[in-house]
Amino acid sequence: MNHSSLPDLPYELEREIFEWAARAYPKCAPSLALVASYVQEWVEATIYEVIVLGACCPKLELFFRTLSSRPTTFFAKNIRVLHLAAGVSHTQARKLLTVCTNLSSLTCEANPLGSGEEFCTSLEAMFPNLRRLSINVASLLSPTPLTMTGTNFIHPFLARLTHLELVNPPTWFDWISLLDGSLPNLTHLAFGNLTAAHSPKMIDFSVAALASDVPRFQMLIAISQNEVFLNALERAGLIGPESGRDMRFVCLPCYYYPFGSSEYWEGVARREVQFWRTPEVV
To answer: Which domain of life is it from (predicted)?
Structure first.
């Protein structure tokens, strides 16, 4: 075949082909980046768009060597979704968060930025485009917590969010205060690692949240394997037979369901899996 006779592809179509190939065959993406300098820019933007780091990531140290060798503008430009799982030190997390200033989504299992108040204030200043956040509530409580009485739990930064996951929420807090209008943009909310002690307040909140107009939830997720908690949900009509119940409420046995931990994070890195999908319910 005479390759010189092949027509040039439109620029945007060529870009779409390389980006698709980099996503579909991530192991081949570094080789694709060598085709041409302009292709390298497209492919690297695809490679670094979603970053998963932690014990689940076998290339953690390699990534941080890359972080030291590239200009900070590279990470600010390309990283949009960042998952910091267990295994990333506070020093590493702080270093990464200071350069990834264009995030739209952040999962952070620990708070590397100081007190709860400092954490939210830092996120507000550093990430103007952040709309999705997953955080362990303990990060907001220690050593200097946000005030968690009445409606004062809500930091102004959180009002921007559309998706929020709160892991290990305290059993004593009245979550009804989240429905006071402080989170007008929130459409997806999840609570992780719920126990029997969460039952009364969490069930009251869930019923009220599903009836709320501001915020108006599209999905409300409870993560629990606790039999007492699950039985309480069923008695309240939140889970069980589909007829008559609100299908926006979803109960999952674990964060990764229906995958294993490694399979889940590999799928996230390939953009094939995301937490806020519509999963099979318990």
So the answer is: Eukaryota
